[in-house]
Design brief:
The protein is of the alpha/beta class and 272 residues long. The protein is built from eleven helices and eight strands. Helix 4 runs parallel beside helix 5 and helix 8 packs parallel to helix 9. The structure holds 3-methyl-2-oxobutanoic acid.
Length: 272
C-alpha cells in the first residue's frame, strides 16, 4: 500500500536526493518500537526517524534532554528489526556529541553498530561542524537539524517559531549551505517561517524535510504519537491529526474493564 510516484524497494540516502531532483515529496514519521515501525514501513513511508522525542512520548519526560544513548540504541534496534524498506535515521541524544568530535563519532558508531540503523541526525549548525565532518569521514550518513532544536530548549526558553528575525534567518541559511557543502544528505527544519524554509529548499540540492515550516519544501515529518492522536494535549497549529487514538483507546479500555467486571469476557468461544 503506497501512493509513491515510483516504487522503491529500499530507500537510501541517495533515493532521497533523487526524490528531491524528481520533485517527489518525502514522507517521514517517527517510530520507536517494532510494532509501530512495521506498520509505518508497510504503509510506504520513506523515512523512519527514531527521534529523541521518545524522551517525551515514550518515557514521559518534559524535554528531550534526559534520554540516553543506550536508550536511543534500544529504540533504534527495535525499529530496525521491523523495517524492510524505510531509511532509518536515529537522533544522537543530548550529551552524546556536544563535547567534541571524537565523542560524536564514538556515539554515532555505537548507534550504527548496535542498532543497525542507516544514518544519524544531529541538532545544530556551525558549532558542530567539526563533529559532523568527523562522522561523515567515517562513512556514516548525517541528517542536519536547524531552526527549533529542542535539545537547546533551556537556551531558547520557549518552543515558539525560530528565525523570524533577519539575523537568525541569515544564520540558518548559512548553516544549511554549510551542511550541504560538508556532505549531509538532508536537513530537517523545525518550526521556522514557511517562506524561509522555501528559500532554503530552493538554495540547497539536498532534501529539506520540515515540521511546522510549510509545504514549499521537499518533505514533511511528524511525531507519530501526535499524528495518530495518542497525545491529545499538544495542539500546535502545524499538527494534522489523522486519528484520534486517545479517545478510541480510552473507549476500548473502558469497554474491556466493563466486560471483565461483568463477566462478559471471556465468553464460551474465547476459552479452551
Ligand atoms: O525527535 C524528533 O522527533 C525530531 C522531529 C520532531 C524532527 O527531531
Amino acid at each position: 500500500m503506497s501512493v509513491a510516484k515510483r516504487e522503491y524497494k529500499r530507500i537510501t540516502t541517495k533515493t532521497l536526493v533523487d526524490m528531491k531532483k524528481n520533485g517527489e515529496k518525502i514522507a517521514m514519521l517517527t517510530a520507536y518500537d517494532y510494532s509501530m515501525a512495521k506498520i509505518v514501513d508497510n504503509a510506504g513511508i520513506d523515512v523512519i526517524l527514531v527521534g529523541d522525542s521518545a524522551s517525551n512520548v515514550m518515557a514521559g519526560h518534559e524535554t528531550t534532554l534526559p534520554i540516553t544513548l543506550d536508550q536511543m540504541i534500544y529504540h533504534a534496534a527495535s525499529v530496525v528489526r521491523a523495517v524492510e524498506r524505510c531509511l532509518v535515521v536515529v537522533d544522537l541524544p543530548f550529551g552524546s556529541y556536544q563535547s567534541d568530535p571524537k565523542e560524536a563519532l564514538r556515539s554515532s558508531i555505537r548507534i550504527m553498530k548496535e542498532s543497525g540503523a542507516h544514518a544519524v541526525k544531529l541538532e545544530g549548525g556551525k558549532e558542530i561542524k567539526e563533529s559532523i565532518k568527523r562522522i561523515l569521514n567515517a562513512g556514516i550518513p548525517v541528517m542536519g537539524h536547524l531552526g527549533l532544536t529542542p535539545q537547546s530548549i533551556y537556551k531558547f526558553g520557549t518552543y515558539t517559531v525560530r528565525a523570524k528575525e533577519e539575523e537568525e534567518a541569515n544564520r540558518l541559511i548559512s548553516d544549511a549551505l554549510m551542511l550541504e557543502k560538508i556532505g549531509c544528505f538532508a536537513v530537517v527544519l523545525e518550526k521556522v517561517p514557511a517562506v524561509l524554509a522555501k528559500k532554503v529548499a530552493e538554495q540547497i540540492s539536498i532534501p529539506v524535510i520540515v515540521i511546522g515550516a510549510g509545504g514549499d519544501v521537499d518533505g514533511q515529518v511528524l511525531v507519530i504519537h501526535d499524528m495518530i492522536g495518542m497525545t491529545h494535549e499538544f495542539n500546535p497549529r502545524f499538527l494534522r491529526r489523522y486519528l484520534n487514538l486517545y479517545n478510541d483507546m480510552t473507549n476500548a479500555f473502558v469497554q474491556y474493564s466493563k466486560d471483565v467486571k461483568e463477566g462478559d469476557f471471556p465468553n464460551e468461544k474465547e476459552q479452551y
